[in-house]
Amino acid sequence: MAVSIVVALLTIALKMGAWWITGSVGLLSDAMESFVNLAAAMFGLLMVTVAERPADDDHPFGHNKAEYFSSGFEGILILGAAAAIIWAALPRFWDPQPLEQVGWGLALSVISSGLNGLLAWVMLRASRMHRSIALEADAKHLLTDVWTSAGVVIGLLLVGVTGWLWLDPLVAIGVALNIVHEGWRLIWRSWRGLMDAAVGPEEQAEIDAVLERFTQRQGDEYVVLFDHVLTRTAGQRRFVNLHMHLPPSWTLGRADDLRQQVEHALAQAVPGLHASIQMLPDGVEPLTVDLAEPVPGTPHAH
Question: Which residues pair with 242 in a beta bridge?
């Protein structure tokens, strides 16, 4: 995230220079999005720092959800940049302006896009390694910026070939509409995360496979059964709560040994997963069971 701030400053300088020497609102729209990159990177660095704080008395489950604020803030900034781009481009339809020194402007834009593309590739790898939505959001925004710059370059080349000055503001508006989609997607994903969304389908399948492996049957009867499997995602962390039903004749030591095996297998299947397993005698449910009804159709539900 710190490197992202430095690259954002470099691209702002390059793209503002490209706009200054050409007068293209297409390049101006590209430069304005880089200001969004800078603000998002600064806020993202702050939120990642907060998310790394250990759990405390006020936040016993940690601070990982802070990353969702970063992703949502970036989405809001993107929508604001899109509105500003459209506001700047519309007057050019009625009063087209000639473009100057287009070659230099395009060169500066291509260099800045190369920096953004390289940084986005590095950040995407880091986001997968650390399971960080803040890094992923910033990386995907940078990729959007790369495609935006590519569209602007193509638009300016068409202006140079055809002489149609109205293509410049049209490209700018096209850029704005493109980044609106990315901004809205980031806001929606942040909202889902803050609302304790379940883990993804692939992770859920891994959890189901582990529980199925430890389920024990004797004929048509279950000896060990798992139900009320509930999952949630909080930034880099994954949580699963479940009930493990065991024969009443088992000793506490034997039951706890199996619980530890299940927890270890779940942690291996889904890195970063925190499992909370409630051990219960067969046929017994806790008084709070109404708050954790099993998901219909899951293979581990009664």
Answer: 277
In a domain, 234, yes or no: yes
Compute CA distances 60 → 219, 235, 264, whole Å: 43, 15, 22
CB 168 within 8 A of CB 230: no
Q: Which domain holds residue 280?
A: 201-291
Q: What does the alpha-carbon distance between residue 104 and residue 93 come to, in Å, rounded to a whole number?
A: 24
Q: Judge if pTM exceeds 0.70.
A: no
- Is the torsion defined by CA of 267, 273, 279, 283 positive or negative? negative
Query: Which H or E run includes 248?
Result: none
Q: Closest Cα partner for 230 from 160, 161, 163, 278?
A: 278
Q: How far, in Å, CA of 13 to CA of 4, rounded?
A: 14
Q: What is the pLDDT of residues 188-199, one digit of tens each?
A: 777 776 777 788
Contact assessment for residue 232 and residue 196, using Cβ atoms and an 8 Å cutoff: yes
Q: Is residue 170 part of a domain?
A: yes
Q: Is residue 300 part of a domain?
A: no
